[in-house]
Amino acid sequence: MIDDLKKIAQFAERESRLRGKVRIRTLKTVADSKREYPIYSFSLGTEEPTAPVLMITGGFHGLERIGAQLAWSLMKTTVERMTWDNALSELLGRVRMVVLPLVNPTGYYNYRRSNLNGVDLMRNSPIRAIDDTPPLVGGQRITNKLPWFQGAPDSFEPENQAVIEAFESEVKSSRCAVALDFHSGFGLKDRLWFPFSYTTKPFDSLSELHALTYLFEQTHPYHIYQIEPQSHGYLLNGDMWDYLYLEFHKASTAGLFLPVTLEMGSWSWVRKNPLQIFSKHGAFNPIKEHRLKRTYRRHHLLFDFLLKALYSNSTWSELDEPTKRKHHQLGIERWYSDLT
Ligand SMILES: [Zn+2]
Question: Is residue 274's pLDDT more than 80?
């Protein structure tokens, strides 16, 4: 994977049409006993601080390898298209893509969910759940020998420091940003989860989230996703997206940040190929080549939609008061009817 990312970087350097349009940074370097790994960020498109941003992250959980591979695949396609697609170039003249394809390289290369300190990076922020979380899976500080370990209460792991650095420098100043974070796990369906993870209360940006969902479903009525708050799955402590969402909105009252997790249902891969569950990374990833390729293709529609929705964001991110109230009400009826 690191070599694949280096190839994209070399390609971007070689191609004169990409000069200045693909900016690559090593945010941090982490290591295991064998080697060092860079945590890269690729920034594509405009550098205007307030421009709309699509942030893409993969590989928070090292075992869920398909997430990093999907981020790489989408980025590779985009960089190739930037050499000839004038419509995309125009779009990226006004929108920025910030991609961290492999947040947790030591986990990825050592077939672990956590990083090498045994910390679950999606449980590592200081956000504490205010409603009940399931034992262990909701985050625990007992021992790093068990999964879902949150790490030290007052510090971020280096991988999350890298995510925060990218967020602070390229996302936080945006007037309208969406994050799409790739995971895979149990379940048959591909789910899009939005905050919160720390509480069952409705998401603070429910109006805009519902307006964006409405636009997506009007445009693509036969999409494949189950869209719901993370709290419909399970609550957890230390979610990074809750943390970054609350940080963004603490600093900016005018801007909007919608973090969304794509949880790819892996049971269908296991069901069709049951023996893969015994392989090292089988339970969370498609193994057969054609299934891997299908997964790459499967999410292009969503990716393309989000880029275009960000380019034309005022229709869903800058709602007048009556429209805002309408979307809030529809969102409550759709996702939080058990709370009313
Ligand atoms: Zn995950």
Answer: no
Which of 102, 58, 108, 73 has its CA nearest to residue 295?
Answer: 73
Helices (DSSP H) in 119-191: which residue ranges? 158-170
The hierarchical CATH code for the domain 2-339 is: 3.40.630.10
Ligand 1 centroid distance, CA of 98 (Å) = 20
DSSP string, 239-293: -HHHHHHHHHHHH-SS-EEEEEEEEEE-HHHHHHSGGGGGSTTGGGS--SHHHHH
Higher local confidence (pLDDT), 254 or 282: 254
Average pLDDT, the chain: 93
Q: Which range is least confidently modeled, 179-188, 233-242, 273-282? A: 273-282
Cβ-contact 149, 227 below 8 angstroms: no
| Gap from CA of 320 to ligand 1 centroid (Å) | 36
Centroid of ligand 1 to alpha carbon of 154 (angstroms): 22
List residues, by chain if needed, whose CB lies under 5 Å from ion ligand 1. 61, 64, 183
Q: How far is the centre of ligand 1, averaged over its atoms, from the C-alpha of 60 (Å)?
A: 7
Return the domain boundaries, the chain.
Answer: 2-339
Does 269 score more than 70 pLDDT?
Answer: no
